[in-house]
């Protein structure tokens, strides 16, 4: 569905899900989106129609002036993003938000340039922390699993060769452990 309106914004440069949702809510009129799924008629300052989320004969779907909807038949409620999510074919709420932003031309908020500069300054620190975690994991793996095998080898030359070989084998294992089990944060 996202491909219909263009490419997705780079998530590293948008300013958080809640701020993006706020920008979409402020820019996309819910009555326009709701009228895609059900005809609405004005009743005072509200709009009323059949709920697009369930089958009904009596209108119970209200669109309120503050930009939210409520169905008194099925209990569904939310904003324009929730409506698009529930009526569309989306697996995640953020997909509906991005789709609305692309369709309606909503510029999503970006992080301040100071945030990007700070991330660049902190890259070497994060890389150093990652390297330290990997080194510590390698040492633990080596000592726990490979050192007993190496120490059991009587031939000095074979022992040195095995020690080097086993130490090298710990690197991909340690990287995997740090990335998956220790919650590695990567570059972002």
Assembly level: single chain
User: How many strands in all?
Assistant: 5
- First and last CA, distance: 26 Å
CATH architecture of the largest domain: Alpha-Beta Complex
Q: Any idea of the CATH topology of the largest domain?
A: DNA Primase, Chain A
Give the name of the CATH superfamily of the largest domain. Answer: Zinc finger, CHC2-typedomain
Would you state the CATH class of the largest domain?
Alpha Beta
List the helices and strands in order: HHEEEEEHHHH
Q: Percentage of helical residues?
A: 55-70%
What is the radius of gyration? 28 Å
- Count of folded domains: 2
Q: What class would the helix/strand composition place it in?
A: alpha+beta
Largest sheet properties: 5 strands, antiparallel
Number of helices: 6
What characteristic shape results from the CA principal axes? elongated
| Mean pLDDT, all residues | 87
Outline the low-pLDDT stretches.
Answer: 1-6, 184-188
How would you sum up this structure, described in words?
The structure is a single chain. With 188 residues, the protein is of the alpha+beta class. It has 2 domains: 2-104, DNA Primase, Chain A (Alpha-Beta Complex), CATH 3.90.580; 113-180, no CATH class. Helix content is 55%, strand content 8%. The protein is built from 6 helices and 5 strands, in the order H-H-E-E-E-E-E-H-H-H-H. The protein has helices at residues 17-27, 30-37, 80-87, 93-104, 113-152, 156-180, and strands at 41-43, 46-49, 61-63, 69-71, 77-78. The protein has a 5-stranded antiparallel β-sheet with strand order 1-2-3-4-5, with helices on one face. Strand 3 (61-63) and strand 4 (69-71) form a beta hairpin. Helix 1 packs across helix 4 (93-104). It is elongated. Mean pLDDT is 87; it is low at 1-6 and 184-188.
């Amino acid at each position: 569905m996202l491909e219909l309106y263009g490419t997705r914004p780079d998530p590293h440069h948008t300013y958080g899900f809640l701020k993006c949702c706020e920008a979409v809510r402020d820019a996309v009129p819910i009555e326009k989106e709701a009228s895609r799924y059900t005809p609405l008629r004005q009743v005072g300052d509200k709009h009323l129609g059949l709920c697009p989320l369930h089958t009904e004969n009596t209108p119970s779907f209200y669109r309120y002036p503050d930009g939210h909807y409520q169905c008194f038949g099925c209990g569904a409620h939310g904003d324009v993003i929730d409506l698009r999510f529930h009526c569309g074919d989306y697996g995640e709420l953020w997909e509906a938000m991005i789709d609305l932003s692309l369709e309606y031309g909503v510029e999503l908020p970006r992080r301040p340039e100071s945030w990007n500069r700070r991330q660049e300054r902190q890259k070497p620190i994060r890389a150093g922390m990652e390297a330290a975690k990997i080194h510590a994991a390698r040492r633990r793996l080596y000592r726990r699993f490979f050192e007993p095998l190496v120490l059991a080898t009587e031939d000095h030359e074979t022992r040195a060769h095995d020690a080097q070989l086993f130490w090298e084998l710990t690197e991909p294992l340690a990287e995997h452990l740090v990335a998956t089990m220790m919650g590695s944060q990567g570059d972002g």
